[in-house]
Amino acid sequence: MEKVNINDTIIHLVKIKNKYHFYGISTANSELIETNEEPPLSEDWGDREIYQRINITNFTKVEVPYPIDKIFIEYHQNLKDILQNNRDGQFYNLYREELRVAQKYFAACSPELYNVFDLISRSIGFKPELGIENNINVPTKNEPQSPDYNPAGRVKTIISRLIRDTKLSRLTKAENNWKCQICGKSIQLPNGFYDSEGHHLKPLGGEHQGPDIEGNIIILCPYHHTEFDYGSIAINPETKLIEHIDSHNQYHLKQLAYNRENLGSEFLRYHYGLIFNKS
Ligand SMILES: [Zn+2]
Questions:
Q1: Is residue 83 in a domain?
Q2: Are 169 and 216 in contact (CB under 8 A)?
Q3: At which of 72, 100, 123 does a domain end?
Q4: DSSP 3-state assignment of 59?
Q5: What is the mean pLDDT of residues 20-49?
Q6: pTM higher than 0.90
Q7: 78, 102, 123: which is the final residue of a domain?
Q8: 193 C-alpha vs ligand 1 centroid, how far in Å?
Q9: What are the backbone dihedrals phi and psi of residue 15, each rounded to the nearest 5 degrees, phi first?
Q10: How remote is the CA of residue 179 from the centroid of ligand 1, in Å?
């Protein structure tokens, strides 16, 4: 058995209807513990004298468990290469040119293998909650509820910095590799994953009642998200260029880091017309 350390990331593979699935991710909360307490679902493992166990935390389940057979086909070459470089400690082996799950209950995950699971997670919009998200999604306390440089006569916009990270916004972010559409940057998390924020151009709540649809969501880094909320920056719905209240800003009149075809012009127009504070 491999050694387990506290804070190790654990990839859970679970057998469903006789097929292994990528089931979730968690963090180890203990090293290996020996116990004589039988697990709640012992199945073939009942009646043993000693069980080895670890405690876990932050378990996040993959919404639709992903079949390992599919991973073996889609990432066949990567997994074969990984196996070539490190025969021991993998959860799979090669049998007549076919990859299959080996009977291993703790397997070390090389950085290359971790990468494969990262790619799979991105492709299905799975982002484990490892305690980071909470910090990002908490509204900042001392911020003004409304910027005080609102020109007279504009629709008053009250925006709290509570980030509505809907399921759809998480998916849209994953599809776009968590990159800010203004600066192209993403937040790198300590667990090897990335993050960004989804911003509803026409805000969801309050007087705006914007819809939670892909066309209304722009992917931003926390910095540009704040600028969007305060109306310091916008996308011109006609030219699709970035406009900033400060004409010396480095992004003013620049192209987006990347465009998204499905971004709705009506929502760009809403943000540009009613929230952007251009003079
Ligand atoms: Zn940015």
A1: yes
A2: no
A3: 123
A4: strand
A5: 75
A6: no
A7: 123
A8: 17
A9: -80, 120
A10: 8
